[in-house]
Amino acid sequence: MSYRLLYFASLADRAGCAGEERASGASTARELYAEVAVAHGFAFASERLRVAVNGAFVDWEHALASGDEVVFIPPVSGG
Amino acid sequence: MKRFSLSEEAIDVARERGALDHAAAGAYASFEGWVRNHNEGRIVRGLDYQAYAVLASNEGEAILAEAVARFEVREARCIHRIGRLEVGDLAVWVGVSADHRAAAFDACRWIIDQVKERVPIWKNENYADGDSGWLHPDGVSTPPAG
Questions:
Q1: Does the distance separating the beta carbons of A77 and B121 come in below 8 Å?
Q2: Which residues form the domain of A41?
Q3: Residue B48's beta-bridge partner residues?
Q4: Which of B138, B77, B137 lies closest to B104, judged by CA?
Q5: Do A71 and B51 touch (CB under 8 A)?
Q6: What is the rounded CA–CA span in Å between residue B5 and residue B25?
Q7: Into how many domains does chain A fold?
Q8: Is residue A47 assigned to a domain?
């Protein structure tokens, strides 16, 4: 399957890019984060993040479909 | 009707206030969040806000719809800046109109608290010593790569 990942804030700095198309065997958001955390050296445990698929928050066991836009949301600091 | 928006331009509060006009409203409360020149003991020269725009807009709209349902208010708006800001710039504005002041104050406070907690916007502070860093305020610092 292929996913479109977007990275923000310190995750973008760490990954060295704002996003990527990624071929992956991961079938849930949790599996995909485990894979990209290793690939990019993300220090965040998943407990510190939220995850969004196609512009909406989902839970970590959300089943992914090929072509989904997946975004791991680090702790926010607006305002 | 859009109640929440992200803006790359300076917020014109006088213009935005018009959206809150209502003949039944006897109160208007607002909150302005400004860029300050210090944070946690460091001198701040400016900052950059980044947003995941699609989700930030959805979540911001949800917060304002919840506020209008939850409090006795006539209308509510919030605008959050994105991009580069200088010290003193207006970073976020919340405005609420209501028949009476208590609901206007309560809703205004609730909205800004929810925005800070839920909306995917991040702040990168530029410090006087040339360093910079993204804020992920849950008690653990995460230095940028490189």
A1: yes
A2: 2-73
A3: B84, B124
A4: B77
A5: no
A6: 23
A7: 1
A8: yes
Fold of B4-128: Aldehyde Oxidoreductase; domain 3 (3.90.1170)
Lowest mean pLDDT among A2-11, A45-54, B72-81, B136-145: B136-145
Confidence of residue B1 (pLDDT cuts 50, 70, 90): confident
Q: Cβ–Cβ contacts within 10 Å for residue B17, how many?
A: 15
Tens-digit pLDDT profile for residues A37-66: 999 999 999 999 999 999 999 999 999 999
- Which residue in A13, A56, A71 is closest to B144 by CB distance? A13
ipTM of the complex: 0.95
- List, in sequence order, the alpha helices (H) in B25-100: 53-70
**Chain B interface includes A59 (CB < 8 A):** no
The proportion of chain B whose per-residue pLDDT surpasses 70, expressed as a percent, equals: 95
- B31 contact A CB<8A: no
